[in-house]
Amino acid sequence: MIKVTVYRMNNQIIGFELSGHADSGPYGYDLVCAGVSAVTFGSVNAVMELCQTDLDIEQGDKGGYLRVIIPDQSNERVMEKIQLLFDGMLISLKTIEREYSQFITIQSN
Predict the structure, then answer these.
(1) Active site residue 33
(2) Which of the following is catalytic: 2, 33, 66, 68?
(3) Is the pLDDT of residue 57 over 90?
(4) Residue 54 falls in which region: left (phi positive, over 0), alpha (psi -120 to 50) or beta
């Protein structure tokens, strides 16, 4: 199962962590894993490109782990954009969770 943990401070996303494997299909044909990966990496890439922000990213060597922390931002406008992009990511992940709850779970800390 993929476990998504979203870290918040003052109601703002400050980072998130994904761990585990969906195992919803054979390697290379796991649609849940592919969907979660596309949504997550697409959002991370969008933040880095559109917000000109370097994120603190940690990945597992063989997949199955991603941790992203947003650096402290003094620019409120940039932080608003980051929040919007990561909120969009969470909406997409929650949509996947609604259909495939046996393979993905999302929690906030």
Answers:
(1) yes
(2) 33
(3) yes
(4) beta
